[in-house]
Structures are given as structure tokens and as C-alpha cells.
Amino acid sequence: MSGPAPRRRRFSRARVVTAVAVAVAVAVPALWGAGVTSAGPVARPAHHQSAPADPDEDGDDGGGAPGPGTLRELLAAMTGSAVADPLDLAPGSLLVDREGEDGLTLSWALLDTDDGRWTGSADAATGRSEAESTIKAWLAADTLRAAAQAGRPVPDTLRADISAAVRASDDDAAERLYRALGGDASTARLEPECGVEVSTSRPGWWSYTRVTALDAARILACVRDRAPEWPGGDALLADLDAVTPDGRSGVRPALPGVVAEKNGWTLHGADGWNVHCVLAWEDRALAVLTTYPAERGVEYGWTVCRDVAGDVLSVS
């Protein structure tokens, strides 16, 4: 079995922005004197976080000429563009290191779950792939919605299936939920319930629901945000925050607070792997969809997810 194809190295926009931020910290004293120093924290966690502000809000510590007081302002002064948040960039303009790698089809989207802004790869809203097990989060949520709408409790058997499908990515449990919901009628409800219109390449199979990276981010964000409306929603959110180790991408430790995570991974024989990583936290949701040759194994896909998340979130 041959190993993964060599990675083609390139400087991504995200890494360039991060490098500029470091350069700013070094160059600021020469540009603005003692008014702004590099003593403040520059290297920050890889999750979404506001840039640290200067101790004096107007950017002047009283001992020198006024200057920019936040990292975004420093970036604006150095580059003419305050790109400290990837959501400031149009889709397709933030390039990640793994993009264009031989044999790898990669699409990703980052969504602001508060205001709906998003960015991502050039095909984030158009390139579709089978949803795989990422759709199980919706099947679980739709089960709760159906019970609430009917004014009845969720039977213990279905509650057990929800937990198994989400935490352990149990296919049989997901199939029972899907059939109880009317099969493809459940995925069709994504449009009225979450504003996401999906298609399918194989009717009657939940895993063949076709989504874009932006769809995947919006679906998990919808599940996370709407679950509290329905009885059992808090338990579902706990399940999404506690997937078993074999279903984790490795991105979760870099994110703050409670995280909803539902990934999908399937080997389609000679057609290769689909490995998809979808996470929602605070006011963000990230989806990374990958397809690549079978011989590279599932860990290759998890590594791509982590690398893309590192590139994208390093400028958050």
C-alpha cells in the first residue's frame, strides 16, 4: 500500500496574514514609537477570539504618538486591509495549504451562525458530496421535532437510537430514525426547517444525501440552535459534544466551550474515501469536505480537516 502523496507546499492567505501579524508586533515600535509595543499577546489560540486590545482604548498610552490599538487596526495600517477575521474575505480568496493537493478534492466553509455571513473555498456553495454520517445530526433533531409537533414524548427506543447514531455514529440506529421519519421526507424537511435544500444521488439512502460545505455547516448550526426548542434537545447537544474517539477529527480541542461535532467517513471502494468534518461552537460553524484515493486511509482525511481548520481559524 503506497503512502499519501507528497503535500504541495504553498503559502496560504491565512498563513500570510498570521505572519504579517507577527511582523506587526516586531515593527510597531519603529513605526509608532512607545505608543504601541509588542509586549501584548500576539500568538493566540486557533479558535475564534477577538484580537487583544491595547490597554488604552484610543490606541495612545500617553507616552508617545497615537497609533492603532488592536491587531485588526495594525493589520490595516501595515497591509491596507484589516483581515483579522476570515469572514472578511470573499469565498475563494482565502487559500489553505492543502488546497490543490494531488488526488485531493477539498471544499470548506466557515459560517457566522449569528448573522449568516460566510466564507470558504471557491466551490463552498456549489461543490456537492455525499453527506455520509454528518446527516445523522439532522435525523436525530428531526426525530425530536416530529415528537414535539405530535405532542408526544420520544419513545425510549428512539432516544437510545439518537444517542447511538450521534455519539457512536451507529448506522443501524440512524437507519431506524430515518425510516421512522419517512425516509427522504426527513431530508426534504431541511429546506423549511433550516433553509437548506439538499439533493440525493441515491433515493432511500440517508448517507447519499448530497450537500455542499456551506450546506453542511448550516445544517449542524441549525441542529445546534433549534434543538433546545424540542424535548430532549439538551441531551442531543450533549451527544454532539461527546462523540466517540473514532469519530473525532481532532479539531475539537482547539475550540472553546460546548461544541457540536458530527463527522462522516466512508470508503467507497475504488472511488476512494469521503471524510467530512463538521463542527459548530459559539457563533461559528466549520465544514470541511474531502474526497481522496482509498490507499491514503481515513487518518489522511482527519489530518486534512485539522490542517484546514488551523489555517482558517488562525486568523480568527
What does this protein structure show overall?
Helices cover 36% and strands 14% of the residues. With 316 residues, it is of the alpha+beta class. The chain folds into 2 domains: 13-84, no CATH class; 105-313, Beta-lactamase, CATH 3.40.710. Helix 1 crosses helix 2, helix 3 runs parallel beside helix 5 and helix 4 packs across helix 5 (171-180). It is globular and about 50 Å long. 43% of the residues are buried. Mean pLDDT is 81; it is low at 1-83.
What's the short version?
The chain folds into two domains: 13-84, no CATH class; 105-313, DD-peptidase/beta-lactamase superfamily (Beta-lactamase), CATH 3.40.710. It contains ten helices and nine strands. Helix content is 36%, strand content 14%.
Strand and helix map with partners:
Blueprint: H1 13-32, H2 71-79, E1 105-112, E2 118-120, E3 129-130, H3 136-150, H4 156-167, H5 171-180, H6 184-188, H7 190-194, E4 199-200, E5 209-211, H8 213-226, H9 233-240, E6 259-261, E7 264-267, E8 273-281, E9 284-292, H10 297-313
Number of helices: 10
Let me know the CATH homologous superfamily of the largest domain. Answer: DD-peptidase/beta-lactamase superfamily
What is the fold named in CATH at topology level of the largest domain? Beta-lactamase
* Helical content (DSSP H or I, runs of 4+): 25-40%
